[in-house]
Amino acid sequence: MQMTERHREYWQKNLRITGILLAVWFFVTFVVGYFARDLSFNFFGWPFSFWMGAQGALVVYVAIIWFYARYMNKLDQEYGVAEED
After folding, report:
1. Predicted model pTM
2. Residues 6+ away with beta carbon under 8 Å from 24
3. Radius of gyration of the chain, Cα coordinates, nearest whole angstrom
4. What is the DSSP string of 39-82?
5. Which one, of 75, 59, 54, 85, lies nearest residue 11 by Cα?
6. How many CB atoms are located within 10 Å of the residue 1 CB?
């Protein structure tokens, strides 16, 4: 099956947002976690390193999932490949 230009555009947008969100995930998981001890300030009454490890990363992960689902639903509708209810 040959991909049309419209399919390529859809796939490129999908790959672009996936790459961006993976970069955010990597940054929150490894970079902020690695340097959290050096960021010695209080955040909502707790040390930032504790907050980021216990709560912050989870909030960011849920936000990534929410944003990806919302973005892909709009993209699917734009390109006419949305699932029908």
Report:
1. 0.79
2. 60, 64
3. 18
4. ---EETTEEHHHHIIIIIHHHHHHHHHHHHHHHHHHHHHHTT-P
5. 75
6. 4
pLDDT per position as a tens digit, 26-50: 998 888 777 767 767 777 777 777 7
Neighbours of 25 (CB within 10 A): 14
Which of 7-11, 18-22, 74-78, 80-84 is most confident?
18-22
Contact 36, 53 (CB under 8 A): yes
How many CB atoms are closer than 10 A to CB 39?
12
Residue 49: count of CB within 10 angstroms of its CB: 19
Measured CA distances, 52 to 5, 25, 57, 77 (Å): 42, 13, 6, 35
Encode pLDDT of 5-22 as tens digits.
999 999 999 999 999 999
